[in-house]
Amino acid sequence: MVRPRHFTVNTETAADNSFQVLADTGENLAVAAYDEISRAAQTLESHGVAVHLFEDEGKQTPDSVFPNNWFSTHAGGHVAIYPMKAESRRRERRSDVIEMLKTHYRVQDVIDYSGLEPDGLFLEGTGAMVLDHIDRVAYAVRSDRTDPIALERFCTHFNFEPMVFDARDGNGVPVYHTNVLMCVATGFAMIGTGMMSDPKRRDEVIARLERSGRSIVALSNAQIENFAGNALELQGKDGRILALSTTALAVLDAGQRATIEESARIVALDIPTVERAGGSVRCTLAGIHLTPRA
């Protein structure tokens, strides 16, 4: 996780992120975001989740609180670094984060795709893709931030099958990142089926998830707009937990919660200021799938 000192809403990314809430920025907004990430990290640690919390002192990285877009880690000691569409987001990449991973975990190789940026080929990490680590599928909404060439290259290197589909919100605006639309956990998958444009492709995605043995938690457009799909399953001290925001939890119904709680404990994090930037809990978490060093 990255705790921002100068948090603000990124006007550069607003053109294709309908989840952003543009507003006057200032010290109060920055302080609130800093405090929200601090409390979120403490809450996760209290549930036994190992958290590496980095500070961001920069004033030119408004979206640094969302590190899952610029790197990801994978079993077997693999790390990927991604090409970002917005120039401001490219400045989020940090060598000290990669060095920390090498120090604390067994890292075999780092594959850097950022060289694709000059060619206009973007793939914004686990925002652009929702990875099923069990069934080895990379679910991806087609967008300017998910180039098919970059996606194919990643899937070849990391042994995933790409499964691409189109999705639009209630106003017909294309969904900018897959991870606001869906979450794939061990025993269930949460997905905004109503936003998937092609009914045939929607059925294929659902069938693939069901074949992997998962229960489907279908989310309405209104629930997606309140970040219900932007969640991440983590390993806690007493088993699996599902980390999502208080905003998201408030719009889930009793049946949906029951399905989730069959295999994971729900842990809600209160980050309303951070959510103004267009992402929620899952976006703030860059998951670690590496083996710790002794």
Automatic annotation (TrEMBL):
InterPro entries: Amdntrnsf_FN0238 (IPR014541). SUPFAM superfamilies: Pentein. It comes from the Bacteria. NCBIfam families: citrull_CtlX (NF046062). This is Amidinotransferase. It comes from Shinella lacus.
